[in-house]
Amino acid sequence: MERGFYTIMAAQFFSSLADNALLVVAIALLIDLHAPAYLTPILKFVFVLFYVILAPFVGAFADSMAKGRVMFISNTIKIIGCGLLFLATHQYFALVAYAVVGLGAAAYSPAKYGILTELLPAEKLVIANGWIEGLTVASIVLGTVMGGVLITPSVAEILLGFDFPVIDIGIDSALESSILLIAVIYAVAAIFNLYIPNTGVDHRIPKKNPFYLIHEFGHCVRLLWTDKLGQISLAVTTLFWGAGATLQFIVLKWAEIALDYPLNKAAQLQGVVALGIAVGAVMAARWVSLRQSVKVIPLGVAMGVVVMAMTLVSDLWIAITLLTVIGGLAGFFVVPMNALLQHRGHILMGAGHSIAVQNFNENLSILTMLLMYAALIWFDVHIYTVIVAFGAFVSVTMIMVRKWHSLNQSKQDSLYLIGEKKVH
Q1: What residue ranges of the chain are covered by domains with CATH 1.20.1250.20?
Q2: What is the mean pLDDT of the chain?
Q3: What phi and psi values does residue 418 have, to the nearest 5 degrees?
Q4: pTM of the prediction?
C-alpha cells in the first residue's frame, strides 16, 4: 500500500470516532434540555438528510481540489458544529448545531472514498475498501462506547476536574467537557488530513450556477444507473446501507422480545453485528479481487435467510453467533461491490461525483427503509413478522439483482475497464 493510505486511515478513524461519540452526547444534551422524546431520532434524520440534499454539490466540491484539503475543510465544519453544540441552550438550536456536523460529514464522504481511486491502482481497491470499512466499523463501536463513557457521572467529574491555567473556556457541565474533547478528536483528524498526499489528479472548478450542478448531478445519477456494472454495484450498496440502518433498530426490538434485554444490553448486540462486518470486510479484502467482485452477490441472498433465522433464537450465545454471521456476510459482500462502484464511477465521471451519487442513493434508501420500519411498528406488527418480511425482502431483492446481472452477461453488456484493458 502507498504510505498516504495509512494517513487516510488514521484521519478516517478519528473523524468517524468523533462522529459516533458525538451522537450519544448530542442525545444526552437533548435530554438535558428537556426536549420531547420524538426529537431524539430527528438528530439522526437531520444528519443523514444533508447527504441527500447536498449530493449534487458535494461531489463537485470534492473533485474541485485535493481530497486531503476537502477532508480538512469538512472536519473544520464539524468542529464548528461542536462549537455550536457547546453554546446550545435550546433544543432546536442543538438540532441546528448537529445538522452543521452532518453538513461536514456529507462533504467529507466523497473525498474520503474518492481519494482511494486517485491514490491506488484498481487491483488494490478491494483491499483498501476492506481496511477502510473495517476501521470505520471499529470506530463506530469504540465511538459509541466512548460517548457513553463521557456522559458517565464519574468520568464527567474527572473531566471537570481539569484546570486550564491560560484561559477560562467556561466549562461547567459534563456535556460541555465531552463536546470539547470530541472537538479535539476532530482536530486530530484534521491534522492527519494535512499530511494526505496530493495525488496530482487534475481538478475541475465547479460551476457557480447551482442549477447547473443539479443538472450535472442528475446526469451523473443516470450515467451510473445505466452503466451495466455500475447499476449492479449501486443497487447492492444502496440495499445494504438501507437494510443495515433498519437492522440496527430490528436488533434492539428483537433482543427485547427474544432475550428479554433492556435497551442498554440490546445496544451491545449491535456491536456484535458491527464486529462481524469488520471481519467480513477484512476477509473480502484478502480473498476477493475486483474482477471477482460480482460473484459475491449470492452472499446477500444468504444474509437475508440468516436474518429470518433470528425468529428461532432465544439463547444468548446462539444469538451472538447468528448476529456475527449476519455481519460477516454483509461485510464480505458489500466491500467488493463498493470497490467496483468506485472504480466504475471513477472512470465514468470522477471519484467525487460518483461517491456523491452513491451517498445520495444509499442515504435515500436509509430514510425510506426506516420510514417503512416505523410504519410497521406504528401499526403494531409483531417484530418476528417484521424480521421475516425484512429477510425475505433482502433475499428476493438480491436474487433479482443476480438475475439482472446474468441478463446483462447474456447480452454481453458486462464488460468493464480495469486500467486499460476490457475484462469480461
Answers
A1: 1-197, 224-424
A2: 77
A3: -120, 105
A4: 0.68
